[in-house]
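Batch manifest line 366
LIGAND: nicotinamide-adenine-dinucleotide
JOB: complex structure
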Amino acid sequence: MHNNVIFVSDMASQISKAIGECRADRLFILTDSTTEQVCLPVVRDFDCLHDAKSISIPAGDTNKSLEAVSHVWKELQRLGATRHSLLVNLGGGMVTDLGGFVASTFKRGISYINIPTTLLSMVDASVGGKTGFNFGGLKNEIGVFSEPHCVLIDTQFLKTLDRENILSGYAEMLKHGLISDVPTWAELIDIDHSPLTIEHSEERSQWSMVNVQCSMIERSVAVKQRIVTEDPKEQGLRKALNLGHTIGHAIESLAMSGTADGRLKPILHGYAVAYGLICELYLSVVKAGFPTQRMRQTVRFIHEHYGRLPITCDDYPALLQLMTHDKKNTANDINFTLLGDIGDIRINQTATRQEIEEALDFYREG
Ligand SMILES: NC(=O)c1ccc[n+]([C@@H]2O[C@H](COP(=O)([O-])OP(=O)(O)OC[C@H]3O[C@@H](n4cnc5c(N)ncnc54)[C@H](O)[C@@H]3O)[C@@H](O)[C@H]2O)c1
Ligand SMILES: [Zn+2]
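JOB STATUS: finished
ARTIFACT:
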């Protein structure tokens, strides 16, 4: 993989340059209903996008669906896209995943550019070449590995992003810190210095991130890039990126199905990852000797910023069942990525049912 992630300082000229490199005959911009409203106006008047035709799909991960894929294929057809056309994906991970898939399959593949507009898509989803959509009730069930021509990151898009979505992306940054090195991790959870300050601006009635430095975002992207460059198809090292995700995905799915009494309701991916990190750091302490103090610092940070999901022991069977069905597992073993310390990655670890239940107890009580 070439180094195709660019932090932009001058959006107009850098988009223009990237589009020029693709030598496309026609240009299309994919948004969801929200980014169409809040992000498209930022770029719409750029000369290079003057003739671009806009395609939009409804916002929300439930729309990362075959229906939406089909809609975008049809729109490309109707609007005269050819094998030499270019798709610009302007949105969060939902748009970059789905748009990347559409582009990679339309007429056997056209070029595409990602312009991520959420923190999660900047540091994670838009980088690394995984594209796809949800199918048959399973997340990212259908997809292909396919690299965008480039990823253009402009943090000004984050100004309109709500607090929960900032925190959701920040959880993946935390994961990147844990699998990289102590300074990167420490900067992210340095509670005394409150690096995560999110301010509410009355006049725009929106939340914005005021204190997550661009340099932190750059370092986080670099962690992901380094790993996916070394192991693009997830044969080994890339599994490091699954830290927090074995239990996190199960929590996410459980919350997604909700409970009749409203105790559990859907949560954002990053919140589930943050909760999963608590459990999997506990397993790392027990099974791989991860330093207890570092686990405690991280757990304190997560509880403080992400709160707690009210799961009970009665949820354990369902959670274990969901973990068994995670597509990252082989046969019947539940597969984990654990840590011996910050940056000391141990892939292909397993844990017993009892150990997993202890980790869930720790989440609830710790
Ligand atoms: N390909 C990968 O490697 C990878 C990695 C992680 C996650 N993902 C995928 O990414 C998706 C999650 O990404 P996400 O959290 O960005 O979700 P998302 O794309 O659904 O965005 C979250 C919400 O924020 C809105 N939004 C986007 N940009 C905005 C902006 N600038 N201002 C205001 N609102 C804005 C969206 O319309 C949406 O309602 C999931 O589908 C997940 O499977 C993929
Ligand atoms: Zn994730």
